[in-house]
Write a structure and sequence with these properties.
By secondary structure, the chain is an alpha/beta fold. 40% of the residues lie in helices and 19% in strands. It has a single domain (2-181), classed as CBS-domain (Roll).
Length: 182
């Protein structure tokens, strides 16, 4: 267990041609960061800060994944727009109001990930304008299950370079929200 924890905090350096599996957060070895749909956006942001992550899995009834929420979802323009549309305060919004529902998430298949290299994953994330991607596999019961997550910030650390996707603060409201959270 000690080696697994050390590996999670100190992942190996990689290159663009390295196997993609080396930059995936393997959820069978690293516990996923989760939150409930009814949590406030401030609670989600605090949870991400404390855990040092930029994505939380939103877990609903029976521990089923309902979606995911990122720092951009919680602190960006999305909550401002939803609050304006509903004519309410941002502080009244919940994670469920801004999360990406599971049925709208793009997923990579673990079999494809095993054949891919780091450069393929980076190119995919960049072309889709995403900072994160989920990886799914088929369980023994034949049902699809979440097996991993790719994060551009994790990949960048392992590559030793910066990676920019379009999923970043683009408006003054988003920049202001990020600054206010610090």
């Amino acid at each position: 267990m000690g080696c697994q924890l050390l590996e999670a905090f100190n992942p190996p350096a990689v290159g663009a041609d390295s196997p993609a599996i080396l930059v995936m957060t393997d959820l069978s070895r690293v516990p996923s960061a989760t939150i409930v749909p009814d949590a406030t956006l401030d609670e989600a942001n605090h949870s991400m800060l404390v855990r040092g992550v930029r994505l939380l899995l939103v877990v609903g009834d029976s521990n089923r994944i309902a979606g995911l929420v990122t720092t951009v979802d919680a602190l960006g323009e999305k909550p401002v727009l939803v609050a304006q549309k509903r004519q309410c305060k941002r502080s009244e919004l919940r994670v469920a109001d801004v999360m990406v529902p599971v049925e709208k998430m793009d997923a990579m298949n673990i079999d494809d990930v095993r054949k891919a290299c780091v450069g393929n994953i980076v190119a995919s994330l960049k072309s889709d304008g995403r900072a994160h991607a989920i990886v799914v596999g088929q369980g023994p019961d034949g049902r699809q299950s979440l097996v991993g997550i790719f994060s551009t910030s994790q990949i960048a650390r392992q590559l030793g370079v910066q990676i920019h996707t379009h999923e970043m603060a683009r408006t003054f409201a988003e920049i202001e929200a990020v600054i206010a959270a610090v």
